[in-house]
Known about the structure:
The protein is mainly α. Helix content is 19%, strand content 0%. It contains one helix and no strands. The longest helix is centred in the middle third of the chain and has 8 residues, at 18-25.
Amino acid sequence: xxxxxxxxxHAGSSPRTDELIAANAARTFAGDGLTLQRTAxxx
Length: 43
């Protein structure tokens, strides 16, 4: 058994629901294209 790294039971990411995909698509970014802008809905 190795202790020099974190062991996981799977590789990859969790499934994304339609609601999560829609929420990600609705996000607004600042002028730098990286920073998320705050909105009243997500404060």
